[in-house]
What does this fold into?
Amino acid sequence: MKELLPPEARDYKERAHEVAEQAVRPVAAELDRTREYPWSVVKALRDADLMGIWIPEEYGGQSAGVLDLCVVVEELSRACGGVGVAYAVNALGSFPIILGGTEEQKQRWLPAVASGEKLIAFGLSEMASGSDAGSLRTRAELDGDEYVINGDKKWNTNGGAASIYTVYASTRPDRGSRGISPIVVEKGTPGFEVGKREDLMGIRCVPVHELHFRDCRVPQGNLLGDQEGRGFKNAMMTLDRARPGVAAQAVGLAQGALEWAMRYTSERQQFGQSVMSFQAIQFMIADMATSIEAARQLVYSAARAIDAGESGASKYAAMCKVFASDVAMKVTTDAVQLFGGYGYCRDYPIEKYMRDAKITQIYEGANQIQRLVIGRALTKEATGLSSMLDVKVEHFPEPAEEKQEPALTGAGAEGSKS
Ligand code: CAA
It folds into this structure.
């Protein structure tokens, strides 16, 4: 249903598809095995003018929308989920600057990200602060004209590869989430160290690291914006724009797995015919394809709503993330099933899709948190419903008296005898 996309998004999708087929698919299995960073793909994306497209034109980007970002991530993830997130996480890392940075800060950091010369990462989570992001403990204290940062970050995607890090630290611990501030830390700053690399189940080509800050001094001018305490909202607004990217990664993974499953089941012969010719298999594939299309359209409409500046961005972002990632997990698991024993071994590409899909239900807010976000939004909406549904409801109707079934007579009775 390509024609449903606006022309710019269609163009981004086609160019990303080209990169995915030429530069990603041939190396996906090898990158998964070696855990090497996909630098060759970054080069291909730069050559195709696809890096940093979401960054405004005045800072070297293309002012592309969330929808454009999603279609690129979807196409890359169709070939490799790890590459999809390696690309998308640059949006997650740079949205805080786009949303909260001063003009000077945007000029300072965004052009290098827009060109792909520098990669960027997002440092919010900590060992004891995941879903409860407001409870983070990393501390930043102003000392003269410098912030002194102390603490540790966890699950930093792109950790080893990035040059710029948006780090959330508490500048006023007594103010809880209102005391959190976003601060940019550049690679090589004394006191900042990229720590342990996690040995992940999936998305293995992307380095996910711990970050350590020990009396790490950065200029006061690295505080995003000109006021402390705006970090939590900045992080939440960032996630509202980035979560559709995770959802698009999920759609791409599910689509990629479906295509492999269709190819395998149409070639695999059992009982003298292709496995796909069995109705039981066709029904599975039909359900997989239907749920993917539903997820895709939800991602696109959520992205378009965010691009249009509609209210309810958090709800739409959460809805598409939760739905698409659950679809990806189900579809990739079913795809493994369709490969039978071959699906369970690394000779075939399908098990990687299932491993890559799992993280989409977890990162950028576990799906339980997405449901919480949706539930809270609906609770607010419910307060407006009493004026709209202006019908007086005195009481619920009494349950109908239980009636005896009448005895069957005539034709019905005859029928029941036969
Ligand atoms: N936009 C703007 N402001 C928002 C907001 C939003 N979407 N959501 C909340 N806020 C504001 C609230 O209005 C409130 O403002 P006031 O202080 O002025 O009242 C403030 O933020 C606190 O809001 P809540 O009371 O709702 O906050 P909470 O503590 O209940 O938490 C939460 C809400 C939704 C659970 C949030 O903590 C959350 O999203 N948690 C998940 C975090 C997450 O996604 N982490 C993943 C990090 S990235 C990653 O996985 C690694 C990677 O590199 C890929």
